[in-house]
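forwarding from the other thread:

> can someone predict this with D-mannonic acid?

sure thing
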Amino acid sequence: MHLGLGAFARAHTAVFTEDAMLAAGDYEWGIIGVTQRSDTVARQLAPQDGLFTVAERGDGAAPARVVSSIVEAISGRDTPELVVERIAAAATKVVTLTITEKGYRFDPRTHTLDLDDPEIQADLAGQPPRTAIGQITRGLQQRALNGAGPVTVLSCDNLPGNGELTGTLVRGFAASLPTSESGSLLAWLQDNVTFPSTMVDRMVPASTEGDLAAVEQELGLRDEAAVVAEPFKQWVIEDNFAAGRPRWEDAGAFFSADVPAWEAAKLRLLNASHSMLAYLGLAAGKETISDAVADPAFRTACRRMMLEEALPTIALPAGLDGGQYCAEVLRRFANPALGHTTAKVGSDGSQKIGLRLIPTIRGTFDAGREPRWAALAIAAWMRHVAITPAADLNDPLAAGLHAVLPATRMPEDVVPALLGFRPAFDQDLAQHEGFTGLLLHWYRILENNGPEGLGNEINHG
Ligand code: CS2
């Protein structure tokens, strides 16, 4: 099963799974894909028997290929009962997830299930479950009743300790059910379900009409569900499976006991600088990440954030060369054929900045230095929030963010107001004078000096 059948899952999970089957000659596997918020992909894949194209873009791109590992595509929104039934089926051995940060419905400060979320409450009250955590837990509950045996739940989202977090959320849901149900379910989960952590990496933009037309040219077939992706892909997985799995290692996945370190490195180097380039790019009217990283000043800011602030505050996993990794990240961002938009990477900022940038900011302050560059990324996000009308801000917390914004939009008002937005910033950081000072410095430059002035300030910083 795969929950969250977006472009990323098709270009990553589905490709690794097909490659594993091909390499191992083990064709016993197939993916039941579940779309979460809309049924578009399920509708696109159904008449194509689940087949879709992956077209690589950039240096070293392989020819377009048709991927056949998805055997069924269903809409979690329209047929939640079917999702529960499939998770509960004995044939299901692994449930993978790419539901994005906001799909987990967790409280970012406590890393526990957000029991105030109305959809979680409705799922707990017994409606056909609409949230991913509700679907998984109800599916596991049914699985226990069916006696369908152990299963692995494998989060593939950009979250630190994604396996442990998913386990906590599922157990949190189970524990909030009536006691007549929760006790036995919690015991069953303990004995039958594992939640390994993973680090996933591949840049996969949303497919455009132009991408579909190019694929049609290449294949001679119209594919409504085609995806484009960079040639690079990586998957690091903790080997803790309850009930068998495809031999993903034969497809190039790497099994490691050190997934948290891989995940921290990826989040704080790649994803943090991705977000930084997105908000700097948006401020300067640049449409894509490759346009943003082509700006020498933005590239400098990004590189210095990684090398001077993020790297010194991360414990790298064995085998990862930090300097090389950063250079490789910048090279991948520069891929002009990918068309990864700053708007897309800049979406859901409230869910991302805390995971990607705040650990670097804390670590740098703790080491007695100023996180100048990471603060620039946060200031650029703040300004993006402040100048984008709430209705256009692509963020699940857009209304809440706009509710705290002052009417004046003066930097000295906006910065403290957004720092007071508790889902994003803890109180100690919000009251940190040094941090406020850095944010105000950059915010004023963004506001008053324009992209050129910003460039000058970066170059002289
Ligand atoms: C990006 C990621 O949209 C975003 O926030 O930073 O989706 C990024 O492209 C992937 O994590 C790359 O593996």
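The chain has 21 helices and 14 strands. thats all i got for now
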